[in-house]
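# nightly structure sweep
# worker-07 picked up a monomer target from the shared queue
# config: single-sequence mode, recycle default, output format = structure tokens
# input follows
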Amino acid sequence: MAEQQNNQPQTNKRQQEQDIGQLLKVRREKLAALQEAGKDPFQITKYDVTHHCREIKNNFDDMEGKTVSVAGRIMAKRVMGKVSFGNILDVSGDIQFYAARDNIGEENYAGFKKFDRGDIVGMKGEVFRTEKGEKSIRISEITLLSKSLQILPEKYHGLVNTDIRYRQRYTDLIVNDEVRETFVKRSKIISTIRRYLDDQGFMEVETPMLVSNAGGAAARPFETHFNALDEDVKLRISLELYLKRLIVGGLERVYEIGRVFRNEGLDTRHNPEFTLMELYQAYTDYNGMMDLTENMFRYVAREVCGTTTVPYGEHMIDLGRPFERLTMIEAVKKYTGIDFDKIPNTDAAKKLADEKEIHYEDRHTKGDILNLFFEEFVEENLIQPTFVMDHPVEISPLTKRKPDKPDYVERFELFITGREMCNAYSELNDPIDQRERFKAQEAALAAGDEEANTTDEDFLNALEIGMPPTGGIGYGIDRLVMLLTNSPAIRDVLLFPTMKSIPNRD
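# output follows
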């Protein structure tokens, strides 16, 4: 009996596979019949669309009685003799359609009855409301534009397997309305950022992705070989050093939104390729970047979400009130009671780290250990928008020192929901100091830090020509989209996240 029960799931699975195989066979037979009859849908090259589904529903009072042409995918079809109902889905959403033999003709209706869920059609008809009050289209013409040879997941149950959702985003977008809305909103977020910065006098630019020196961030780059020049090159990890060259060149306000690549792990917050925006503004400092960031986040939330108070998980994030501002030392003191201003040196900091069971490396100094304390005890508590300022110089190789506290720099990171949202500096424009910082990074690299920067001689040459006082900042666009769409993982806001390849089936 137990053996029968164990075999039952396998039997059911085999039967299911056989049923699916038969359904797929029937769909291909339908296509072959259409092609034999000279009605190959794949020969159709265009269809004139006059309206989209949401437009019709949102403006129904003005649209009722008018003739429209829509195109999209059949998501449901209920045949009831001489009349049928169904739903068609386009980029904006879906709408019900009504098909009757007397309206579209006996031959066309017979062909329509053979259409499958997932087929792409164009339909022309009159906008009307059914007896039950449903906003609908009464079809007078229908054209099969593409035959679906696969079977969509049932829309009622949705596509819930996350691995399949990420690998087959095209299917995910079809059957999960909220996923489609997330990516529509993502596009709006990026266009709104562009509009805001353009209105502030910023100029959008493009800089190289393939570089000989991948600097500007603490990250391990991807490496490849450029055959034409017989040189090893890297994929950029940051946009910073080229954008600063443009500030040197006299372009006073520049920004770039683009892909960067970091050879690191995958988790809910990280993907090896992601969208970064960096901007640089001459004649301002990190305080100016804080003001710009706060105003921009508020503006984008209001324009895209219609409010500055947005839900994220169990929290309501208030982007409308002034963002809290703390130095890193103040933040660590607030959440641990430890004042690093009173820690005299690296030995004392390491002793404290031992007491608190904070792992560090031999090369780490007092500043590094302050940062480790911040990451361990503070980050997760910063739910509401908080600027954390004045980082140790050891972890900030491209940042201007604080004149009154040279072991620290004019830098901030914005944290929301316990996550870093952006990173900004008063940019280091002293070429002599910058060369020394690069030397320290080279030493860290030699000591085993694979994320340390290497010296960029051309960038140093640019600084020697002269860069004005400058504020700069980098934003993780994907994390901002996660926040404004209430998405728990970065893969939920990337159309095609990085996935481990599946071996080919032979």
